[in-house]
Amino acid sequence: MSCFRLIAAMLLLFAYSCSGAGSGDRKLAQVGRYKLYESDIKGLYRPGISAEDSSSILSTYIRQWVLGKAKLVYAESELPKAERNVDRQVDDFRASLLVYKLEEMYLKSNIDTSVSNEELMNYYSSHSGQFTSTESVVKARFIRVRSDSPNLRRIESLYKSDDIEKSEELVGLCRNSADEYTDFGMEWVGLSKVAELLGVTPYEAESIFSGHMSYKKRDAFSTYFVYIFDIVSPGYALPYDYVEDKVKSRVLGRRNIELVKALDHEAMKYAYRNKRVKIYIDE
Known about the structure:
This protein is of the alpha+beta class.
């Protein structure tokens, strides 16, 4: 048993034996002027935990506490006085943390997260140029089928069709014959997803589908078919359906900014109303 584990077990046994005895808060460890008391570890143990596990948890906690305080004592000893004076930094951090918590509470209490479709569309229409991509986005159909499939020729004759009946026939054939079929739920996807399925790089995919809406490829075992229903090239405004979540995030972000401005106004009004503000120079 390690030294820390033995000390922890003795402390734990002592704490149990003296519980309810009315004695003062017991000291568990000390490093320099820093002291760890029994009251500091309240809530450390889960209900029903065994004495052995409690001892292990306590020894680990004490070891970590001692290490942390040893490094602190060493820092106080080794750092120049100017470097040890962190009161200003601590005050700044405390102020920033309190303001952050205030803003968080204020936003939670006042933000309206419901956004109408009309508001989203209006924002998108006014800022569509901000929603662009470095890759093409597509609505596409992808098929991988064994090259010796008896349905290969029929699949090849149908994979570029937009006709509903022919598309239904194609899906039925692929369900029975293809190793893989997807139309991505007829949603917009980045061309890199199609590239991954084809086994080519995104750059190669951009080159393949620059001016071409269909593509066929064969390897040792399979034949691949891709048909592009629609495409938006890099640099152009992305379709609303593809960026709807981003649009909503932007709208809510603007609301957050407006709420923070409102909070700033309330804070200034509170400070002046309660005569907390004093400015000693002419403005």
